[in-house]
């Protein structure tokens, strides 16, 4: 059995849970690599990544390269004398980095590969109405999320859960997958499966303003899946038009009701406490949303302070 000397690479909260599990299982983490600090929010204050916060708190050796091919960084990485690298939600690595350790570099990805390779696998699994997903560990190669698979863990997706809830469940499942993968590598007992490509593989495209916009020409279930697949972040959005006023509105939570409204698609019907939007095959009951300049609130709170006319519509 070979004692592991691990360099961990990751940036967001999802990666922190995995790093914490590696530490708690008494593996030696000789270095942590995370994204460079960057300004965020209105005040443009410098924000540390979630992984950096954890590394500082646990006094782990921390590197924050801006260029992964930089000679000084490569020398420092080599000097850590790691025999394995573990990557969770980081960025594409140059060959000189992923080939460096003797035992290789493996990645944890939040999907059942080869489906949902890419930047936003958790979101797209829900947006596309999948009933199951999971996590996969694989050895990194020169493309994105295409390497030889070590193991995967599967979990069902319930029709009511959003991306935030699934994110947390997959982080827990990822901890199990990484722990088992480390044990296999330590024992020299890894067997891998090559990913097979086919034309029907689904992709986890990067999220942007365009693919987060609600298209009311789609079915109610497609819109409902988009809303929960993007909640709580980055959130689905639409434009609400009432006369000469337009608002760009984030919708965080909705319920799909099969009962159709006697109104054109996109029409909004409100009472003092409820907001309904007509869709092709029923209506969406909006539960929580955010208007520009306001905080996220439930519909009753919003309608307590504003009124929409009968002509209001969502586009």
Q: Could you tell me the number of beta strands?
A: 18
Strand order of the largest sheet: 5-2-1-6-7-9-10
What is the number of independent domains?
A: 2
What spatial form do the alpha-carbon principal axes imply? Answer: elongated
Fold and architecture overview:
- This protein is an alpha/beta fold and 315 residues long.
- Helices cover 26% and strands 29% of the residues.
- It is built from 8 helices and 18 strands.
- The chain has helices at residues 13-24, 50-57, 71-79, 95-98, 121-127, 163-187, 220-229, 299-305, and strands at 5-10, 28-33, 38-40, 45-47, 62-63, 84-88, 105-109, 117-118, 132-139, 149-156, 203-204, 236-242, 245-257, 268-270, 275-279, 282-290, 297-298, 313-314.
- The longest helix has 25 residues, at 163-187.
- The chain is elongated, with a radius of gyration of 23 Å.
- The protein starts with a strand and ends with a strand.
- The model has no long low-confidence stretch (mean pLDDT 96).
């Amino acid at each position: 059995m070979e004692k592991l000397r691990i360099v961990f690479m990751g940036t967001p909260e999802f990666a922190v849970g995995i790093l914490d599990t590696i530490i708690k299982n008494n593996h030696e983490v000789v270095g942590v690599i995370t994204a460079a600090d960057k300004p965020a929010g209105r005040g443009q204050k410098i924000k540390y990544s979630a992984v950096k916060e954890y590394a500082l708190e646990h006094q782990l050796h921390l590197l924050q390269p801006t260029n992964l091919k930089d000679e000084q960084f490569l020398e420092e990485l080599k000097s850590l004398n790691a025999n394995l690298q573990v990557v969770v939600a980081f960025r594409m690595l140059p060959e000189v980095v992923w080939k460096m350790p003797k035992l290789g570099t493996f990645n944890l990805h939040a999907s059942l590969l080869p489906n949902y390779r890419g930047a936003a696998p958790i979101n797209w699994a829900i947006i596309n109405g999948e009933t199951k997903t999971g996590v996969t560990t694989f050895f990194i190669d020169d493309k994105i999320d295409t390497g030889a698979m070590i193991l995967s863990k599967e979990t069902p997706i319930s029709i009511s859960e959003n991306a935030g809830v699934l994110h947390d469940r997959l982080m827990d499942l990822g901890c199990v997958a990484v722990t088992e993968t480390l044990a296999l590598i330590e024992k020299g007992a890894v067997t891998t499966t090559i990913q097979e490509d086919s034309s029907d593989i689904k992709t986890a495209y990067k999220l942007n303003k365009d693919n987060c916009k609600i298209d009311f020409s789609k079915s109610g279930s497609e819109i409902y899946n988009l809303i929960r697949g993007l909640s709580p972040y980055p959130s689905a959005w639409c434009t609400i038009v009432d006369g000469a006023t337009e608002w760009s509105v984030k919708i965080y939570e909705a319920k799909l009701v099969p009962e159709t409204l006697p109104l054109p698609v996109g029409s909004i019907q409100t009472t003092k406490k409820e907001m309904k939007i007509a869709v092709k095959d029923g209506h969406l009951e909006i539960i929580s949303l955010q208007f520009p300049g306001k905080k996220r609130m439930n519909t009753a709170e919003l309608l307590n302070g504003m009124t929409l006319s009968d002509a209001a519509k969502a586009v």
